[in-house]
């Protein structure tokens, strides 16, 4: 006799599958006892990992918030009027990147802890010095 908890687990094992999924996997052919054994094997053999894309984190805050380097090695030039915000961002905070409506700073970077946002543009490298006379880095579109 199959324990009740095993039957419940077997019944829920394919509960989120569509009819087509059940057909494609062949699970519809299995008895409750076979489903239970398969579920136990999957649970013991595999770790569930979320399908969520992770956002990069702040790696370095440079030139008083004028440039940010993220853990994906991207470098961002912050819109000058936003540096009072970005200069307070500290390392290892998740940064959410989204498009902005500003053609000069086409991305909105949001600190996932403070929820504060800045506008920025992605560049290929840091300037040699933060001075105005330095040749600006190439913008990556």
Class of secondary structure makeup: alpha+beta
User: What proportion of the residues is helical, as a percent range?
Assistant: 10-25%
Order the strands across the largest sheet as they lie in space.
1-2-3-6-5-4
H/E series: HHHEEEHEEE
Q: Averaged pLDDT, please? A: 82
Unreliable stretches (pLDDT < 50, length at least 5) are 5-9
Sheet with most strands: 6 strands, antiparallel
Envelope shape: elongated
Fraction of residues in β-strands: 15-25%
* Count of distinct strands: 6
Quick gist of this model?
The protein is an alpha+beta fold and 141 residues long.
Structure commentary:
By secondary structure, the chain is α+β, with helices and mostly antiparallel strands. The chain has two domains: 42 residues, no CATH class; 66 residues, no CATH class. Helices cover 25% and strands 21% of the residues. A six-stranded antiparallel beta sheet has the order 1-2-3-6-5-4.
Strand and helix layout:
Layout: H1 4-13, H2 19-25, H3 32-45, E1 58-62, E2 67-70, E3 75-78, H4 83-86, E4 95-99, E5 107-111, E6 117-123
Key words describing this protein structure:
21% strand, 141 residues, six-stranded antiparallel β-sheet
């Amino acid at each position: 006799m199959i324990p009740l908890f095993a039957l419940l687990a077997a019944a829920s094992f394919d509960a989120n599958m569509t009819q087509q999924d059940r057909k494609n996997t062949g699970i519809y052919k299995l008895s409750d006892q076979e489903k239970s054994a398969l579920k136990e094997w999957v649970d013991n053999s595999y770790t569930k990992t979320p399908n969520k894309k992770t956002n990069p984190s702040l790696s370095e805050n440079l030139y008083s918030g004028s440039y940010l380097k993220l853990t994906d090695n991207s470098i961002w030039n912050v819109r000058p009027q936003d540096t009072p915000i970005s200069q307070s961002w500290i390392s290892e905070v998740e940064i959410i990147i989204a498009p902005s409506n500003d053609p000069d700073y086409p991305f909105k970077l949001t600190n996932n802890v403070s929820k504060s946002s800045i506008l920025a543009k992605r560049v290929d490298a840091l300037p040699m010095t933060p001075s105005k006379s330095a040749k600006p880095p190439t913008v990556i579109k």
